[in-house]
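Input record, target 12 of the design panel.
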């Protein structure tokens, strides 16, 4: 799988912020795929070495809605960009692009353990890579980066809107399992919030986070452990 668009990643923080601001005008929050037509879904995650600057990028592709694994791909490299709040994409996207390049399946939807438009410049990892791959993308994060919200109900499937400082809806706070902490869901690109929520709820099994990113997370951590032995 290759990107449709590209740009330099070795930018100063100031230029990276300017790029995010320009790319935000390309965000499309309309459904490019219908739920009933989704057959494959990809999950992506990145783990980091605690001893070195190495990062471990993983992409897992599942059948949908069966959630059986079709293929996996990985990429290991030195961290290409320092950690800067709001610019995590510049650290995680280059190795993830290399991992995506190794899969044969073109997924109908991509899910990232990160943010979509729930970002100060509406340009989280899911949005940025959704634009570059021109693929429907969803951000499903374990914690909030941006926005305010009320606590959702305790039942699985309960949700409340996540809103920015202009009171625009930028995602939702979703209770995927009763008694568990919620996840922070936001559309990335080429998908609406209602469809993103429906997809994520369908990919939740026994755990709080969706199976597609859970498997990517497990594989990224295993790759890191194996590499450090």
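The sequence produced for target 12 reads:
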């Amino acid at each position: 799988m290759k990107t449709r668009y590209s740009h330099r990643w070795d930018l100063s923080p100031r230029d990276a912020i300017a790029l995010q601001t320009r790319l935000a005008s390309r965000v499309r929050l309309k459904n490019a795929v219908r739920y009933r037509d989704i057959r494959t879904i990809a999950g992506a995650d990145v783990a980091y070495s605690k001893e070195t600057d190495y990062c471990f990028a993983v992409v897992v592709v599942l059948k949908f809605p069966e959630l059986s694994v079709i293929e996996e791909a990985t990429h290991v490299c030195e961290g290409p960009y320092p950690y800067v709040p709001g610019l995590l994409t510049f650290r995680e996207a280059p190795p993830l692009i290399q991992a995506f390049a190794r899969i044969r399946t073109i997924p109908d939807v991509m899910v990232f353990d990160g943010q979509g438009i729930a970002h100060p410049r509406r340009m989280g990892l899911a949005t940025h890579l959704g634009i570059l791959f021109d693929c429907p993308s969803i951000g499903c994060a374990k914690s909030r980066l941006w926005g305010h919200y009320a606590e959702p109900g305790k039942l699985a499937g309960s949700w409340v809107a996540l809103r920015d400082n202009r009171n625009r809806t930028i995602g939702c706070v979703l209770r995927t399992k009763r008694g568990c902490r919620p996840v922070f869901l936001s559309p990335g690109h080429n998908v609406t919030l209602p469809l993103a929520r429906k997809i994520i709820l369908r990919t939740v099994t026994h755990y709080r986070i969706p199976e597609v990113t859970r498997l990517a997370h497990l594989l990224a951590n295993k790759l890191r452990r194996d590499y450090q032995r």
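Residues 211-228 form the longest helix (18 residues).
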